Amino acid sequence: MNEMSMQTHASGQDPVPSAVLSAVLSCTALGKTFQQGASPVRVLQDVALSVMPGETLAIVGASGSGKSTLLHLLGGLDAPSAGRVELMGRDFSSLSEAARGDWRNRHLGFVYQFHHLLPEFSALENVAMPLLIRRLPREEALERAAATLKAVGLGHRVEHRPGELSGGERQRAAIARALVSEPACILADEPTGNLDRHTADAVFDLLLERTRSAGMSLVIVTHDPALAARTGRTLGLEDGRLMPAG
Q: If pLDDT is split at 50, 70 and 90, which confidence band does 195 have?
């Protein structure tokens, strides 16, 4: 990531740019409509959002409110019915599928409620996967993966497969996989929703600490107001629209 001069909020949470910076991730007039039989179902409408460098943002909403759909659109995993999404200044819709995948691989990391680790591979191989997809030399990719696993407290578990890890360890490995490519932004979809409260708090502490120390942006969608309250900004999603929470 590019170096930039930062100050800090009085809360000690998010860095504040000392000069006007471009958004890492943004969307304009974003909409998504699904066809359900003969009837169109509008899930998102006229959503506008800018995520600045180093910002932590929570999007809260009830189950079925469209939070995951919005995250998929922001991550270029799905195409909007209306509007546009820009990542690092490039409109996803202007890119071919291959170019979109490469741009996403370089600038975004993803963490989900269920870890989505590949069961036949070790933690080390799972974390190295984004770098191997980028065609980084295998030795370098594994080196970086090992260092990232150590940074999330799993240096002693690198050769273990997902089935040999606890729930919290699997989520730590998933966080390491999102961090290993040093993206500009992490998108997290209910990343602690499958964990008990104590483990969830520890995993979220780790996610916040690692993204903040690296100057990465973090966007999390959650139904948990306690987690949302720990980010620098919170927005609510209701009736397909984003609005200030509360």
A: confident
> At 81, is the secondary structure helix, strand, or coil?
coil
Selection from 31, 229, 220, 137 nearest residue 128 by Cα: 137
pTM > 0.70: yes
How far is the CA of 175 from the CAs of 53, 77, 136, 148, 185, in angstroms? 19, 19, 20, 9, 12
Nearest to 17 by CA among 186, 175, 153, 215: 215
- Could you give the strand order of the β-sheet that contains 108-112, starting from the edge strand earlier in sequence? 108-112, 185-189, 217-222, 56-60, 233-238, 241-244
Using an 8 Å Cβ cutoff, are 194 and 114 in contact? yes
Q: CA geometry: angle at 24 spanning 21 and 30, to 5°?
A: 115
DSSP state of 93: G
The pLDDT tens digits of the residues spanning 196-245 come to 788 888 888 888 888 888 889 999 998 888 888 889 999 998 888 888 77
DSSP, residue by residue, 180-228:
TT--SEEEEESTTTTS-HHHHHHHHHHHHHHHHHHT-EEEEEES-HHHH
Where do the H-state alpha helices sit in the chain?
A: 67-74, 97-107, 123-133, 138-151, 167-179, 197-214, 225-228
Question: What does the DSSP assignment read for 158-187?
Answer: TT--GGGS-HHHHHHHHHHHHHTT--SEEE
Which residues does 75 contact at the CB level (< 8 Å), separation at least 6? 104, 108, 110, 187
pLDDT classification of 7: cutoffs 50, 70, 90: very low
